[in-house]
Amino acid sequence: MNLQQNVSLKPYNTFGIDVIAEYFTELNDINALQEITDLPHQKYILGGGSNILLTEPVSGLVVHNTLKGITIEKEDANNIWLNVQAGEVWHDVVLYAINRGLGGIENLALIPGTVGATPMQNIGAYGVEVKETIESVTFWYWKEKTFLTYSNRECAFGYRDSIFKRQLKDKAFITSVVYKLSKKPTYNTSYGAVAQELESMGVHAPSVKAIAYAVMNIRTSKLPDPKMIGNAGSFFKNPTITKKQFEKLRTQYDSIPSYPVNEELIKIPAAWLIERCGWKGYKTGDIGVHAKQALVLVNYGNGKGKEIWKLSGDILKSVKEKFDIELEREVQVW
User: Fold this and answer.
1) Is 328 marked active-site?
2) Quick check: 215 and 194 in contact, CB under 8 A?
3) CB neighbours of 109 closer than 8 A, spacing ≥ 6?
4) Edge-to-edge, what's the strand order for the sheet holding 20-27?
5) Phi, psi of 202 (to 5 degrees)
6) Whole-model pTM above 0.70?
7) What pLDDT, on the 0 to 100 scale, is given for residue 261?
8) Which of 50, 88, 135, 160 is labelled catalytic?
9) pLDDT per position in the chain (334 positions), as tens?
10) Is residue 257 exposed (0-12), middle (13-18) or buried (19+ Cβ within 10 Å)?
11) Catalytic residue among 50, 136, 234, 312
């Protein structure tokens, strides 16, 4: 284990926030976990750094997960189970799957971050959540100094949520995930602009590869590249409200978009709410709200994490005042 001191985390977070970690180490060998556990410092786990906002120097040890490897755990006539190490780049796993005609995660193409974040966040896009493909999650339990494996059910997945963000927060280090993918996939093209994009691509018979590339086209047209403009993708979750509250809002805003969750609940796009509050394209100093996607807060250069945090709070307040809807931040804050 190579333990470093006073390391800038700017290269390790997609917001490009420059804060210092008191201690830092790369984890590329799972056997080093025992040694890391025995260190007295508080531990912070960092993967792709694409869903995190750094607001102050980190007092403790930042462990950068770079565990690599994709193996076939088992397969049958209809499915294949991939065991993927948590440090793998998520989009690389999507490409691995679509290049082999394996279905289930094609709608999740180009979501930034690493595999370890996928069960933690229960990442989702274009009508698909990763929980639909996760068979199990293996993690290092800091307190007991042992590996545990949880089934899909034990992970308690919810909307951008899991047991790893709640009961096991700061207690578990995800080391690998098993995904169950289909050799005979069914296609989900009904959500958002996927079907429209496939049509513009001239695709009349969908495939996992075609859908993935349609999603990639949509994402690149709307979302800024973190290599060009610092950001962490969607900063807020889409809120869920009651049908009664939705009907009341619709009397004032007849164009309000919505997606039914069940007979009682309706999901509203947070981007629409934020845009109607006048935030889209807002800029102050080196931070702001992206001009093409109101869900995305951005760092144009030397913005500070605390400045972005304050901006997000101002947005929450304005949406609450205008629509009486409580938005929730999706990004994790250190």
Assistant:
1) no
2) yes
3) 91, 94, 95, 98, 212, 213, 215, 216, 219
4) 4-8, 20-27, 58-65, 43-46
5) 80, 25
6) yes
7) 86
8) 160
9) 789 999 999 999 999 999 999 999 999 999 999 999 999 999 999 998 988 999 999 999 999 999 999 999 999 999 999 999 999 999 999 999 999 999 999 999 999 999 999 999 999 999 899 999 999 999 999 999 999 999 999 999 998 899 999 999 999 999 999 999 999 999 999 876 898 899 999 998 899 999 999 999 999 988 888 888 999 989 999 999 999 999 999 999 999 999 888 889 999 999 999 999 999 999 999 999 999 999 999 999 999 999 999 999 999 999 999 999 999 999 999 9
10) exposed
11) 234
**CB under 8 Å to 74, separation ≥6 — which residues?**
80, 81
pLDDT single digits (tens) 190-217: 876 898 899 999 998 899 999 999 999 9
Which tokens go with 210?
A: 């075609």
Domains along the sequence of the chain with CATH: 4-65 (3.30.43.10), 70-182 (3.30.465.10), 230-333 (3.90.78.10)
The residue to which tokens 């996927």 are assigned: 194
**What's 127-161 look like in SS3?**
CEEHHHCEEEEEEEECCCCEEEEEECHHHCCECCE
Q: Measured between alpha carbons, how far is 230 from 233 in angstroms, rounded to an integer?
A: 9
Active-site residue, 200 included: no
Clarify whether 8 is annotated catalytic: no
